Amino acid sequence: MTTKHLLTIAILFISSLYASAQDLNNSSTTKDTLWIDNGNRHIFGIVSKPHYQGKKQPVAIISHGFNGTHDFGQSYFKPLNEMGYQVYVFDFPCGSTRSLSDNNTMNMSVLDEVNDLKAITEYFRSQPDVDADGIILIGESQGGLVSALTSAEMAKKVKAAVLIYPALCIPDNWNERYPTEADIPDTTMMWKVPLGRRYFLEARKIDVFGTIKKYKRPVLIVQGDKDPVVSMDDSRRAVKTYKNARLHVIPGAGHGFKPAEREEAVEQIKKFLKEIEE
User: Fold this and answer.
1) Beta strands in 6-82 (DSSP E)
2) Fewer beta carbons within 10 angstroms: which end of the chain, N or C?
3) Does the pTM exceed 0.70?
């Protein structure tokens, strides 16, 4: 038995204990480990589902940011499960030094993450208990950029997108730092995370606003006005670029929300989802 198989068994065992403990407190939901394959990429995640009562359920797919993991997204389980949504949180392969999918960040790629999110979306659309027309993409920071690009590429398959301080600035930021391809080193350290050259070669060619304008369905952007990483100007530009979008600004919030700010963001998301259901 390989190390990977042993790790998978251990994760499954721990997750089953976690789910059982949670179910004692809330029998109306279930939580299970769910691996989804995208070719040779194996994506670790956890799905939280409301009790199935014969009606197909919408799904919210949560994408973490740069060097994040599935952990942050679990805060969405309770509020969205209560609204009838299945919620899937996961680790992008190579998306973090702590990723349970693959922690080799030298292979991180925004385009790979888009393809992974597309594969996850298609997986849920194929499930018998899922409303295939009720897929919502929610992403924070780099995951917000990935969710925005994926929504545009799957415009007829994604019902709505929620972008939390989305890093739409990634291509422009790195093109500023590395004006030509020859300027890009083999390894770049970003917040103590090593990135390979491919990340920047691909990112520099992404036409963010030319791509996202293809998405015509509802979009909610939530951002703090003290964000030192992602410019409010990009979020305002995105609202103008999209056909149907709005921006909710949290005064004083930075890049990464404090508990009260996250609670405000969740309330805005719930309000948004109720509106698109009407």
Assistant:
1) 29-33, 36-38, 41-43, 45-50, 57-63
2) C
3) yes
